[in-house]
Amino acid sequence: MKRYIRIYMQLLRLNLATLLTYRVNFINNMIASIGWGAMSLYTVIILTTHVTEAYGWKREELLLLNGLYGVIVGVFHMFLSINMGRMSRIIHMGELDGILIKPIDSQFAISLWQVNFSSVFRILMALGYTVWIMHSMHLVVTVSSILFAVGLALISLVLLYSIWFLMLTNLIWFTNMSNLVVFLYSFESMARFPKEMLTQLASLVFFVVMPLTLVINTPVRVLLHTATFADVMMLVALSVGLWWAARKYWVFALRHYTSASS
Fold it and tell me: pTM of the prediction?
């Protein structure tokens, strides 16, 4: 474990050095990240202007849900989704061989190699928005409830990562499905909606999107003091289960991987 922590710290330094080398690219990415984040927040504000309640959620609660979505998904895009896009490119271009011969775990190398520092500004913007909404709602929060919500947010990131990695592992067999990443970006956006809204979907569709409904909904419910023990346990169980499944599926896929050189 210590070895991988040292490796990751070195990767952070290398990513920071790359950022300082290509500053114009960083500024462009920063502006794009802030723009997408602002559009995401502003869209929900506009859509709920004349709405006092929807699916049992008050307007302020919907705004809080959207704000926390910006924070959690912003962290995901900063540390993980950038590597998922790289994973698609690596497999499609036959560069996986070079990773497999490295003396480190291949899943670690694929999942954590790059960091998108430009997402920091989107995260800070969403965090400020979330704090403002909580203040306007006069929410009574304690240190323990905040720590609990942060812990569940980290578990939500594990769940989100596991879903992405499970899906993208299929590229081992179907290398031409490089647009799968675009689909996952769209699929992920469903996490910003209340779970009660998605229950209106067909039962099979809801079963597929149900894990996503827990990613943002559960931490928000903790802050609103409406979370149940079942909500928390379902999020934890799905996160652990899907992470285990993603790991096993990756190992299984590598056994059937035909290298680019063969």
Answer: 0.88
Give CA–CA dist 65/19, Å, rounded.
32
The answer to whether residue 99 is domain-embedded is yes
Identify any residues that bridge with 53 across adjacent strands, giving them in sequence order.
58
Burial 190-223, CB ≥16 within 10 A → b, else e: bbbbbbeebeeeeeeeeeebebbbbbbbbbbbbb
Phi then psi dihedrals of residue 58, to 5 deg:
-70, 160
- Give the residue numbers spanning the domain of 54: 2-255
Question: What is the C-alpha to C-alpha distance for residues 170 and 247, in angstroms, rounded to an integer?
Answer: 13
The total of other beta-carbon atoms located within 10 Å of residue 239's CB is: 24
Predicted local confidence at residue 160, as pLDDT: 92
CA-nearest of 159, 151, 152, 140 to 231 is 152
Q: In this structure, which amino acid lies at residue 229? A: F
Q: Across the chain, what does the average pLDDT equal?
A: 84
The beta-carbon contacts of 12-20 under 8 Å, at least 24 apart in sequence, are 12/115, 15/114, 15/115, 15/117, 16/117, 19/117
Query: Does the residue 168 lie in any domain?
Result: yes
More confident residue, 182 or 248: 248
**Whole-angstrom distance, CA of residue 138 vs CA of residue 38:** 24
Residue 109 lies in a domain: yes
Q: Which residues sit opposite 54 in a β-bridge?
A: 57
d(CA 149, CA 83): 26
Cα-based angle 53, 57, 58 (whole degrees, multiple of 5): 50
Instruction: Answer whether residue 16 is part of any domain.
Output: yes
Q: What is the pLDDT of residue 156?
A: 93
Q: Which residue has the tokens 């099979």?
A: 204
Give the total number of structural domains in the chain.
1
